[in-house]
Amino acid sequence: MDLQKETKKIKDMIEEDKKNVSSMKELNELKVKYLGKKGVITELNSKIKDVPNEEKKEFGMKVNEVRGLFNVFYDEEKINIETKELNEKLESEKIDITLPATSLTIGAPNILEKVVEDMEELFMSMGYDVIEGPEIEEDLYNFELLNLPKGHPARDSQDTFYLESDKILLRSHTSPVQARTMLKGKGEKPIRMVCPGKTYRRDDDDATHSHNFMQIEGLLVDEKVTLADLKGTFDVAAKHLFGENCKTRFRPSYYPFTEPSVETDISCFSCGGKGCSICKNTGWITISGAGVVNPKVLEMCGYDPKKWHGFAFGFGLERVAMLKYGINDIRTFYQTDLRQNVLFDRKEDK
Ligand code: PHE
After folding, report:
1. Where are the alpha helices (DSSP H) in 19-97?
2. Do 189 and 219 touch, CB atoms closer than 8 A?
3. What confidence tens digit (pLDDT) does each residue in 84-125 have?
4. Hey, which of 152, 215, 250, 255 would you mutate to test ligand 1's pocket, going by the most ligand atoms within 8 Å of its Cβ?
5. Cβ neighbours of residue 241 under 8 Å, at least 6 residues apart?
6. 255 lines ligand 1 (CB under 6 A)
7. Residue 173 Cβ contacting ligand 1 at under 6 Å
8. DSSP one-letter string for 224-284
9. Chain-centre distance of CA 168, in angstroms?
10. pLDDT tens across 250-273, in order?
């Protein structure tokens, strides 16, 4: 074997191959061609065993020389190709900073949602659970178990949307969740829960009524609970929502599921009680219905009224939001004018 000739051949081959490489794939193919298991240089190297001992050293050096030649070429070409590919990528991803930007829209949380979260946080801090109930409800929970049997006159005050039969309806208040929660408690567990959610009534829509509105229900059941506990809890909630100066009062009312029942009023935050258009010159604003859970309801829902007592309340959430943010038409909550949220969000920040 003529070593000179062999190595020259390989060197020429490398020079020739150099001209045709333009990608990493091709470059790596060349690496296999020269240095792979059956590569040209590898094969040449394997012939060292046939070389007489005294020539082995020179042979080795020559093979190393071509291997070095290839490696230098490989390393240089690799840098070239990588730089070229990076430049191409940068070029194709170039951003034209002179193009006009898409304008940013200002977002803000929905203010009803804010009131809900605010109330949830407050009640959770007092150990209440937040619970949800179905909007499509059974007559059983919406009325029967709340001491509103069929034919009860108070059913009329909640003109209800019935679905398919007279047993399935859109809940007319969040109070059915009271019954559901008590039944789950199986007459054994004390209960502290609030439930925010949508409710439906066949009201005509006007500035203060909507056939779809939100309530937050509250229910506490334990062994020694009185109307005074309700008063204290309502006081905390009112001050949290409307400020430390807010005073509260109860007026007698009627709900079949509470006895006694009350309307809960807060002192008018606008005039401080002197009388103005917001409080219709009374100095007071009603924001929820409430009362001590009627023993009949406790019993129907599995709680022994001799042992257990409770209070319940139901806030109208739009009403709270309207008062808190000075909105005078309930319908604006259901018209998709996003400006409202931004507007009132900003107002509160001031
Ligand atoms: N569910 C009553 C309503 O919608 C409000 C209420 C809740 C009253 C809980 C008493 C206790 O008018």
Report:
1. 24-35, 40-46, 53-92
2. no
3. 999 999 999 988 889 888 888 777 778 888 999 999 999 999
4. 255
5. 115, 118, 119, 320, 324
6. yes
7. yes
8. S--HHHHHHHHHHHHHHHH-TT--EEEEEEEETTEEEEEEEEEE-TTTTTS--TTTTTSSE
9. 30
10. 999 999 999 999 999 999 888 888
Asked whether the beta carbons of 205 and 325 are under 8 A apart, the reply is no
User: Would the CB of 171 count as within 6 Å of ligand 1?
Assistant: no
**In whole angstroms, what separates CA 328 from the centre of its chain?**
29
Please name the residue that has the structure tokens 């490696």.
71
- Candidate from 175, 209, 217 with most ligand 1 atoms within 8 A of CB, to mutate: 175
Between residues 242 and 337, the one the model is more confident about: 242
Hey, is 156 helix, strand or coil? Answer: helix
Q: Residue 175 Cα, ligand 1 centroid: separation in angstroms?
A: 6
265: number of Cβ within 10 Å? 21
Q: With CA atoms as reference, report the closest residue to 126 among 9, 232, 17, 5.
A: 232
Residue type, 257: F
- Helix or strand holding residue 297 (H, E): helix 295-300
**First vs last Cα of the chain: how many Å apart?**
94
Cα–Cα distance for residue pair 132/317, rounded to 1 Å: 15
Cα separation, 234 vs 240, whole angstroms: 10
The tokens describing 138, both together, are 């059974």
